[in-house]
Amino acid sequence: QVQLVESGGGLVQAGGSLGLSCAASGTILSIEAMGWYRQGPGKQRELVAIMHSGGSTTYADSVKGRFTISRDNAKNTVFLQMSSLKPEDTAIYFCNAVNVREHWGVWPELWGQGTQVTVSS
Q: Residue 1's pLDDT band (boundaries 50, 70, 90)?
């Protein structure tokens, strides 16, 4: 079974930077889109950024200009570089993969276990 394994995250002061990575493990042929969502305390899960296999990206308005998403398609890995972090960026960040194709078929959507990002003021 394909798994999404996240790394990075932690505690950082406001204005600082942090990087997240997520690697999909398994006998993967292709992944249509990989990205990041987050869920802050008492909030619903929301899209942060997503990148399609062709390179197109979508960012939440709240992170545009501060966060950068990138992918290594050959390694089935997605990265999120976060800068100028704000306390309101504090959340659990979840890796997401859409239409993960293996030899037997397709996983429509997969999620990582989540990694905590805390930004102190």
A: confident
Q: Return the DSSP state at 64.
A: T
The 10s digit of each residue's pLDDT in 66-86 is 999 999 999 999 999 999 999
User: Could you give the CA distance from residue 88 to residue 62 in angstroms, rounded to a whole number?
Assistant: 10
Q: How crowded is residue 52: how many other Cβ atoms within 10 Å of its Cβ?
A: 15
Tokens of 111: 């999620």
Using an 8 Å Cβ cutoff, are 68 and 80 in contact? yes
CA atoms of 86 and 14, how far apart (whole Å): 5
DSSP string spanning 19-43? EEEEEEESSEEEEEEEEEEEE-TT-
